[in-house]
């Protein structure tokens, strides 16, 4: 088993934090995404979609979606529970996890991919056909990301965690998104006391450095 990784990228980081919380160690190999290593014949032989993270199993099968990888390890290592136990908890964690992805991660990614020179012709990750950047999507992505921050600030009012009353994958995604936002110069300020306190709590967890 091997995890193909990129230390700086947000999605691989979500998996690393998840594994650290589970206390699971998996051999990792760094992939140079800006340099195009993920599009090399050698890497495409492992994952034809050219994505990271990619989990290569012993039998040659692969998983390349962050939450799918986390789900896989959650079955193998059910404790500590990070997806919820009861029907309500699981639904609430899934709901908030998706909100963090769709409203936060995807908005920031749109702003980043449409403004970074290295991705001028790579509008989508992996082997998707060349797609030129659209400057207007940078502005729109930033606007949507700011709306997400406002919603997250409200969500965290009186709460220690994003979804339920303990740490879950929804917190991992929210925390990673907040750091990813810095890539597009989007930062919280004094108007976000709940987010700032949440970020400090997440950063204090040993898994945050994974």
Automatic annotation (TrEMBL):
Domain (GST C-terminal): residue spans on this chain: 86-210
Record keywords: Transferase
Keyword Transferase: yes
Source organism per UniProt: Sandaracinobacter neustonicus
Gene3D superfamilies: 1.20.1050.10, Glutaredoxin
Name this protein carries in UniProt: Glutathione S-transferase
Alphabetized GO MF terms: transferase activity
Taxonomy, superkingdom: Bacteria
Phylogenetic lineage: Bacteria, Pseudomonadati, Pseudomonadota, Alphaproteobacteria, Sphingomonadales
Pfam families: GST_C (PF00043), GST_N_2 (PF13409)
Ranges of residues in domain GST N-terminal: 1-81
PROSITE patterns referenced in this protein's UniProt entry, alphabetically: GST_CTER, GST_NTER
CDD domains: GST_N_GTT2_like
């Amino acid at each position: 088993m091997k995890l193909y990784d990129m230390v700086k990228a947000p999605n691989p980081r979500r998996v690393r934090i998840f594994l650290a919380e589970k206390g699971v160690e998996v051999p990792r190999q760094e992939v140079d995404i800006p340099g195009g290593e993920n599009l090399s014949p050698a890497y495409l032989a492992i994952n034809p979609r050219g994505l990271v993270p990619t989990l290569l199993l012993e039998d040659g099968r692969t998983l390349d979606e962050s939450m799918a990888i986390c789900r896989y390890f959650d079955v193998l290592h059910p404790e500590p529970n990070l997806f919820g136990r009861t029907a309500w908890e699981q639904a609430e964690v899934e709901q908030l996890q998706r909100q963090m992805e769709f409203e936060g991660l995807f908005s920031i990614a749109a702003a980043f991919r449409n403004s970074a020179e290295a991705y001028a012709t790579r509008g989508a990750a992996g082997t998707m056909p060349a797609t030129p950047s659209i400057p207007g999507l940078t502005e729109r992505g930033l606007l949507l990301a700011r709306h997400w921050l406002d919603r997250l600030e409200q969500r965290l009012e009186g709460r220690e965690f994003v979804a339920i009353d303990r740490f879950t994958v929804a917190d991992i995604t929210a925390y990673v998104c907040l750091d990813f936002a810095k890539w597009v110069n989007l930062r919280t300020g004094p108007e976000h006391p709940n987010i700032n306190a949440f970020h400090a709590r997440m950063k204090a967890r040993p898994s945050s450095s994974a």
